From TrEMBL:
One of its GO terms (molecular function) is GTP binding. Transmembrane segments: none annotated. Pfam families: MMR_HSR1. This is GTP-binding protein. Residues 6-122 form the G domain. It comes from the Bacteria.
Amino acid sequence: MKKIPEVAIVGRVNTGKSTLFNRIIKKPLSIVDARPGLTRDRVKKPVEWENFTFFLTDTGGLYPPEDDLIWEKVREKIKETVENADLIILLVDASQGVTPFDEEIAEWLRSKNKDVILVANKIDKKDQDVLSFYKLGLGEPLGISAV
């Protein structure tokens, strides 16, 4: 039996991962709020996209490492999801530009030797620059507005 591919959406907190997830699955399944760090558990759903089926997983946001048991558990679940994924969508916040933590996440994902699509969310202005995200070393950034 053929394995159904797994796609994971990962990134810092408050980059719009749950909003993108809800748009792709066409249902408001993941909770969305302006407060950062609301999503802590993974949400996984099958998706049919142009006659192609895959599982899509929304993950909690990555925080820089700190001594917090809850966020350590969130990081563990994200790491597990990345290990099992066939494709990773790294979602970054174009309105904030490249952050040092984006660079750390990109370095970690490159070390996994997985296929990664770099998506710059929150492109609300026509002239907003996504080219700076090339420095993450993950190829051409795709600019979107998930809302």
